[in-house]
Amino acid sequence: MADWNWWPRFHDPALRLSLREQAALHWDANIRMLRDWRACWSFTWISLVPAVLFVGAVRLVIADDHGRALGSLSPTTLLAVGLALVPLYLLLQHIAFSIAMKRTYIPFVRAALTARGYPTCIACGHLLGPATPANCPECGSGTSDPR
Ligand SMILES: [Zn+2]
User: Fold this and answer.
1) In sequence order, what are the residues at sequence separation of 6 or more whose Cβ sits closer than 8 angstroms to the Cβ of residue 43?
2) Which of 146, 102, 94 is nearest to 125 (CA)?
3) What is the CA(15)–ligand 1 centre distance, in A?
4) Cβ-count burial 105-119 (b if 16+ within 10 Å, e if not)
5) CA quadruple 144, 30, 16, 129: dihedral, nearest 10
6) Ligand 1 centre from 57 Cα, in Å?
7) If you average pLDDT over every residue of the chain, what do you get?
8) Ligand 1 center from residue 127 Cα (angstroms)
9) Ligand 1 centroid to 134 CA: how many Å?
């Protein structure tokens, strides 16, 4: 993950948008994504992975299949383990959110940017300028995307 960021990078930082423009851009990108059920489905299942892992870990460590606490651990230990899982869950949830955003939502932000007069590479987010080239000078991918 060479280009990992802790917060999704929606567009080229050289592009300075007002809050109003950003809100309009994300509204547009959301509408575009909602028209694509595959993107919505991918976003949903990636986002749910940490919750499934969390519930699985809690059941594994704390309770048996019938919700009864496992006898060998003291209540204090159970509480400590449960609380220790929370930050781990939040970390995984944020990572899943970032992956889901990057894989499913960000291409729609870039398409919305292009539609709003800022031609943007769908693959890498590079600003292409008004004379849009056939291939992105930054990553080399084609610049015509139907989204
Ligand atoms: Zn590119």
Assistant:
1) 33, 100, 101, 104, 105
2) 102
3) 15
4) bbbbbbbbbbeeebb
5) 10
6) 40
7) 84
8) 8
9) 11
Q: How far does residue 74's CA lie from ligand 1's centre (Å)?
A: 55
Higher pLDDT, 144 or 28: 28
- The domain ranges of the chain are 19-115
What pLDDT digit, counting tens, does each position of 66-118 carry? 656 666 677 787 788 778 888 989 999 999 999 999 999 999 999 999 999 99
Ligand 1 centroid to Cα of residue 73, in Å, is 53
pLDDT at residue number 62: 65
Q: Helix, strand, or coil here: 40?
A: helix
- Provide the whole-model pTM: 0.77
The phi and psi torsions of 45 (rounded to 5 degrees) equal -70, -35
Tell how far the Cα of 89 is from the centroid of ligand 1, in angstroms.
Answer: 33
Is 127 strand, coil or helix? strand
Using the mean position of ligand 1's atoms as its centre, give its distance from the Cα of residue 110 in Å.
Answer: 11
Instruction: Give 2 Cα–ligand 1 centroid separation in angstroms.
Output: 16
